[in-house]
Amino acid sequence: MPPLYRHHHGHVIVLLVVLFAAASHGAPAGGAYDGPTCQFEPSTCGDLTVQYPFRLYNGTEDALPAYGEPQSSYCGYPGLAILCDDDKPTLLLGGHDYTVSGINYTSLTVSLADADALGDDTCPMIDHNVTVPKQFHLPTSTVAYLFFFLNCTFLPDADVIPRPLRKPPSIKPVTCRGSGEEPAMSFVLPEREIPPKDWWQACRSVYAAPVLKDALPADATDPGWREDGYAKALRGGFQVGWDRSSGPCGQCEQSGGRCGYNRTAGFLGCFCADADGALVAGNAAGCSKISDTTAPLPEWPVLPQACLLLP
Question: What distance lies between CA 110 and its chain's CA centroid?
Fold first, then answer.
């Protein structure tokens, strides 16, 4: 939007209004915003229905904008952007891909599976921990953990000090890679079956992966579990829950609006639909009844910022 000029006592006062960057393709008259950054209608990716507070994106919004172009912004919660690639919905958690198999908007839960476990490998090994952003939580009623102890080498007993770490007799290595007992072994154990003490220090790396509690074995030493049973548990995925927003975003939602954020997770304001379904800006308190003809510029809680430049 070009600067607005007016004359006052021989001086030119330049009022530069920094408008909300979310729909920065332009702000039509009446306060309506064009552009797809804030959609009220659900969208789909394969069989998955995606709607607020989630959103679909094309995977490029984290790239720096070209000089003079606005930063990307959107309606929805930070961290809840779903990439749709060949009708496969993917959510990025801590730099790792998780396939989204379902979203329950009533119970506020998302069903995920580590993409590394969904390939053709019959013996998947997880090499990272799951990182859950603050918008999510892992429901303790449905989620348990599998621990991956990878490339563990136990030296034979020797008359040396300190004595070598010994493998606990209660655990057995996975067999799907033909690791057997020598020379290095890997173990996949439910949290409840991890032996005490420091034996795990003989392993090159240790990771934890969430799974559904119902997928845990009755006996982790069972040959079926060590062959491919644990892989089935991984592919069954796990659930995360999300929390409804509070503060100004919560007030916006309670009034029927959608919260707008910039790409650095800064709250920008509340978006509302007018009588014609056009997207318009609400006010600091949320959405009020908006005229189907015109709507004044809102008093934003954070933006726009007004700069008075006096010559």
Answer: 10
CA max distance for the chain:
96
Tokens of 160: 């040396």
Looking at residue 60, its amino acid is: T
What is the distance between the terminal CA atoms of the chain, rounded to a whole angstrom? 21
Q: Domain locations in the chain?
A: 4-95+245-309, 108-242
DSSP 63: S
Looking at residue 117, the DSSP 8-state letter turns out to be: G
Placement of tokens 């999510």 in the chain: 136
For residue 247, give the DSSP letter. Answer: H
In sequence order, what are the beta bridge partners of 91?
82, 98
| Residue pLDDT, tens place only, 79-120 | 888 999 889 999 998 889 999 999 999 999 999 999 988 877
Tens-place pLDDT, residues 152-195: 998 776 555 566 788 899 999 998 765 445 568 999 999 999 99
Nearest 5°: phi and psi at 54?
-85, 170
DSSP of 133-166: -TTEE--TTTEEEEEEEEEE--PPP-S-SSPPP-
271 forms bridges with which residues in the sheet? 258, 281
Q: Which residue has the tokens 């995606």?
A: 50
